[in-house]
Each structure stands twice: as C-alpha cells, then as structure tokens.
Amino acid sequence: MKKQVKLSIPQQSEQKRPLICTPLTGSDRNSLMTQLEVIVKKNPDMIEWRVDFFEKLDDLQAVKSVAEEIRNRSAHIPILFTRRSTREGGEEITISEKQVFNMYEAMMISKTVDLIDVELSADQADIDRVKRLAEDHHVQLLMSYHNFSETPSVEEIYNKLKETEDQGADIGKIAVMPQSIEDVLSLMQATTKASKHLSIPIVTMSMGRLGALSRMMGGACGSAMTFAVGSASSAPGQMPIEQLNAVLQVIEDVMGE
Amino acid sequence: MKKQVKLSIPQQSEQKRPLICTPLTGSDRNSLMTQLEVIVKKNPDMIEWRVDFFEKLDDLQAVKSVAEEIRNRSAHIPILFTRRSTREGGEEITISEKQVFNMYEAMMISKTVDLIDVELSADQADIDRVKRLAEDHHVQLLMSYHNFSETPSVEEIYNKLKETEDQGADIGKIAVMPQSIEDVLSLMQATTKASKHLSIPIVTMSMGRLGALSRMMGGACGSAMTFAVGSASSAPGQMPIEQLNAVLQVIEDVMGE
C-alpha cells in the first residue's frame, strides 16, 4: 500500500536491451482498471499513466484515488505519471497549469507514482518546484520534449536532451515526427551522441509509421526505454509489446556478445 | 534442366521488404548438396554460391557439374555465382584471375546461374568482358565493393554505389565494417540516398555484431536484399534466416500502410 517502487533506469550503452513502457489512456476509473489488468499481464518495465486522458482531472481526490488503485494493482511495476500538454500532443484538459502542478505535488507526496514527466517547455518556476518536491519525495524527474510536426536537426535534438540534463532531470526524453527515413536516422544519430556525452539516461523515439524503426533499434543507439502498446496506444507508431519484445530478443541475440 | 530462372530484383523504396539471399559455402560437392538441401527448405529469395570456398576450383568441369546440380536442386530459386577475392574478404584460391573470368564465362554460357558477382576492383577489361557476356546470356551483373576494416564516409559509400551504376551493373552491392553504431547509421544514410538517386537496385550491409542492425533495417532504407544464414555464414554478422524473417515481418506489419 503506497509502497514506493525503487526504480533505476540504467544509462544505456550500445546493444543494451531498452526498458519497455506501456501507457494507460483510459478516460475513467473503470477503463483504466481494465487497461491495467491487460497491461500488467504483459509485464512491461514501466507503466505510464497519461492522466490528460482522464476526464475527472478537475477532481484531485478522484485522481489520487485512481492513482492509489493503479499502484495497488500494478504488481510493483514502476509508475510514470504524465500530463501531456496540448502544445506537445496531449489531450485538452479543463484545469489550469497551476492545478496541474498542484496535482503533481499531491502525487509525489502520496508516493503513488515513481516518476513524473515534466515538459521542458513548462514554466521555469513550475519546473523548479517539481524538482524540489521530486528530490524530497524520491520521485524521479523525467523531462521531455515532443515535436509532432517535424524532426529537428541532429544538433537541435542533442541540445534538447542536453537541456534536460542541465535542468537537473533524472531522465531526458525526446519524441519527434519524421517526414522521411533520413529523419529517423537523424534521431538515431542524436541518440547515439547524447547517450555517449550526457550523464543521465535518455529516452528517444521517432514517431509514426516510419519512426517505428527507432522504437525497435533505438536501444542499440543508446535509448534507455521504448514505448509499446499493452492495451491502447498513446502516440503514433507505437507497436504491440509482443511484437516489440520479439524484435528486441532477436537484436539481443545477434548483437549480444 | 539448365532452365534459366527469370529474376527481377525490384528497385527498393522505403518500407519494402527486402529479398533474402542465403550463401552456399561448402568446400566440396557433398557438403554443398547437404547445405543446399537445408537452405532450399527455408525458401530464400536467392542462393549465392560462394565458389571461392570450393576446393576443386581448378577443375572447371567439376565447377560446371556442381553448378548444374545446384541448379537442378534449387527449386527454381535464382542463383548468384560469386568468387569473392581475398582482397575483399574471400578465401584463398589456386587459380589465376584469368581462369576466374574464364569460369564466369563458362557459367554464363551454360546458363546454370542467374546472376554474377564482379567486384568493382576487378580489371576493367575483365569487367567489360563479363558485362558483354552477361548481356548476351541474360545473366544479371551484380557489382560489389567490400571493406572488412572500416566504414567509409556517407559520400564515399554513395560514390561506390554510383560507380556500380556507371559501370553498367544491374545491381550494386556494398558491404562495410563498422567500428561504432555511428558507422552503421552512416551506411544506412548512404543507402537511403543511393536508393533515391540511383536507377539500379542496391544491396547494402554493415557487417559484424553492430552491423546486424543494418541486415534487419536496411530494407526500410532502400536496400533491395539482405543476406542471412540458411546453413552456414559467409560473412560476419549474418543472422539465421528464421530470425531475420521474424523481424522483417514485424517491420512490414508496423511500417506497412
């Protein structure tokens, strides 16, 4: 009950098998519990609650109660708590930014989540507040950047990841949209560079149909985690966890020493 | 009997599933037939006879006889006939370059093979001779470049593939050795570029443990064919055809429309 799961995302070096995170996207308690039951059986390394899909977001007690129920039914799988903003591809919500960060605070204090996702584009004051609380409550801070329209240059992708490190994040994440295979290769190049030069684990993905390659091969380039569908997709290009596991096993077999 | 297999390697565009070619590396007739029996059951798209492994290379009648037997037992799978030179990673042989090209001529005339591999580094006179004969006998000319020590720059890889087109090859092939994941990504970048700008199908691979990624993902970058082990490996990093097929199926599922 409210027991905090100890989590360590290893910094990823070449050829390591990345962790798999599966999203929860239900709009109410029942659909979330149905998804959770399906997901837990598939044994992902992490579960992300995309709380921006939750329709009762304006009821903090409801959020806390569902968070506790997720915790109790997640078989000790670490929980990443994420409100994705509309400017970075998330759902429309009815609460203010201040309320979002109050909710984050409540989650950290109640120890029902292990990691919190905060976007690099958030206000610096909000970032600083979450950072202090995350340290106090031993919650890991994942800082993220999403671009649903294009893929920035290798240098820009690297710089965004560097920015998460500079901000004091425990993990840096970037998700970008490719227009071509060249864009997917750019994301993978930047991943390789960042995994060598940064001191924190990074999580990267190229989205959509073309980007699916990066969800399979990103681990070999140094991405510490990849997102897959356990019950429902939360971003374009996510593939079923079973298919992803099969490919990761082959990669491990042929690339392992 | 001596029926020529009609083969068309499609020019590869993004997301197409690449053909799979499996090598024959036996040193004598019996070991070749044992390998062939295993390979044919696995239904590759092409079979490469790496004739430099054959110990009776100095006996042209023996080569012709085995070639005919391979043809008759290969279940209409197209045959690529390859003598890999020692300078490009092949086996030591006892015959001269002139005898090698005489052997190529005999193979084309006897119509026991569908494609011939000629290295870009061969003498121009030999290349021209094979090219004429290949046209006359409707054999496809695959021109290749191998580097077992390093990965040239994206530009150099592209230029080697362009050179195969300029030489009049029907298919261009390049195999390079990576020292890092960056090198594997370079090969994939050059593949993407060449598949868009050249008029002939190209076949590319990064070798070794790291390069295995390119054997799985190269098709998505525009490589028309990938080599896999049916019975025995002919180059570092080749993986079993069963594993490769499983990964290619997933890629097709998630990247296909």
Report what the structure shows.
2 copies of one chain form a homodimer. With 257 residues, chain A is α/β, with parallel strands linked by helices. Chain A has a single domain (15-256), classed as Aldolase class I (TIM Barrel). Chain A has 8 helices and 8 strands. The longest helix of chain A is centred in the C-terminal third of the chain and has 17 residues, at 181-197. Mean pLDDT of chain A is 93; it is low at 1-7. At the A-B interface, helix 6, helix 7 and helix 8 of A face helix 6, helix 7 and helix 8 of B.
Summary, kept brief:
Chain A has 257 residues and is of the alpha/beta class.
Which short descriptors sum up this protein?
homodimer, 257 residues, alpha/beta, TIM Barrel, 8-stranded parallel beta sheet, 8 helices, 8 strands
Following the backbone from N to C, one meets helices and strands of chain A in this order, namely EHEHEHEHEHEHEHEH
Domain tally of chain A: 1
- Classified by CATH, the class of chain A is Alpha Beta
Total beta strand runs of chain A: 8
Protein chain pair with the most extensive contact, residues per chain: A-B, 29 and 29 residues
Spans of chain A of at least 5 consecutive residues whose pLDDT stays below 50 are 1-7
Instruction: Supply the number of helical segments of chain A.
Output: 8
Question: If you consult CATH, what is the topology of chain A?
Answer: TIM Barrel
**Structural class, from secondary structure content of chain A?**
alpha/beta
